[in-house]
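Data availability (excerpt). The following record was deposited with the supplementary files.
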Amino acid sequence: MPLTLAKPGETNCIQKITGKDDVRQHLAEMGFVVGEQVRVVTEIGGNVILQVKESRVALSKAMANRIQIG
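Predicted structure:
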């Protein structure tokens, strides 16, 4: 399921990242790689605040929809 369907506070494992090569590369540079744990912190104004590795990152819903979790 896409990351945007996860509830705040849930920790999930990234299963797949979709999109063009440059989009996947950009997400990988921020720490979003297959097998990594990601937690939804909150959702504010159409953006999703995520905890990945030791960082908090804000992504648009469109970008977060490219991250598939399981």
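Summary of structural features: Residues 3-69 form a domain with the SH3 type barrels. fold (CATH 2.30.30.90).
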